[in-house]
Amino acid sequence: MSLSILIYTLFLSWTVLATSNDSEAYGKTDIADLVLIYQGGTHRPMEWTKDQFLPYVVHENQQGEKNWLFDGFLFLEFKDGQGRNYAPGYDKLNARKPEWEWLLDRRFEKGKAFSALNQCIEDQISEIGAPGFKHKLISGIPSPILNQEDWGEINGQKLDFRKQEDRLTAGKWYIDRFLERYEQENYQHLELKGFYWVDEDVRGCADILIPLGDYIRSQGLQFYWIPYWTAPGRGDWAEYKFDFAWIQPNHFFNKDIADERLEQTCAFAREKNMGLEMEFDGRALADHESGFSTRLEAYIDAYDKNGVFEQASIAYYEGGNGVCRFSKSNNPKDKELMDRLAKHIIERKNKRFLKHE
Fold first, then answer.
1. In contact, 92 and 83? CB cutoff 8 Å
2. Tell me, what's the pLDDT at 15?
3. What integer pLDDT is reported at residue 352 of this predicted model?
4. The predicted structure's pLDDT at residue 204
5. Vertex 328, ends 323 and 330: CA angle to 5°?
6. What is the dihedral sign for C-alpha 131, 59, 252, 266?
């Protein structure tokens, strides 16, 4: 056998092996398409009423056909919009116990957030029939920020976030309070899956991730994470005992980042058994001066080419109101682009991801 034939034969063998393993390579969880809902801070453009949730719950295409869209909703917040942050580095001051309690109130406010999402789903069931899945809910946990000393007290004990045990105490307190209120509401159309770590890297928090995750799992729930592309610890998510993680390509936001980043992210996700994030915002609209609609198209192309839509769980960052803005656009190009993305999302539920439900 000539050397060239041998090399070609080995290449074919490797290709077949790689292809046969592809279906097991990406990370999978029982949420196919998880949309990020930035809710809580007063600076947000959306209050998240049931009408605002509608284009996230049901997609209506250009032919007037309606289908259920996202099956998972992640509620998260980085800051309160009034000077205090729920994760390090987003504002001047760190959120204290009163701001943590305020965020809980925002989550459970009647007619908004969880309540509005549940009502929106109920309304649409009467319109188009019950979905073939239960809508999943994940909630972010405020970060007990390392070295904070003014957070407040629990049971008369002042907490000092220079101490690991005090940071864990605060995290567990928030989880307990959240679960107490969630159980009282009895949302008929939502299934709470777990909690999300809002810090997007492990700096300053690595020591509490495993015990906090263990506490979440003791409640029958799971612990989730979405690190950014260069985040410390991004590939070690399983070692920190997150139950599932998605990786951010961080491609959309910078026109100087080549589409090759998306190929690199797909390869990294395969290697690390992760899901992937889809990223866009209002700049993806056809009339936007940035011309960033082509960058969203690049995500769709890359995820299609690399089998992401067929094989991986996807989290969707859409800038806090991107899907809503697309739904209100009268530009046919915007309708076509969102129809294309929604078609993938709809088909994923019909074909594979949620058949067990």
1. yes
2. 35
3. 58
4. 93
5. 120
6. positive
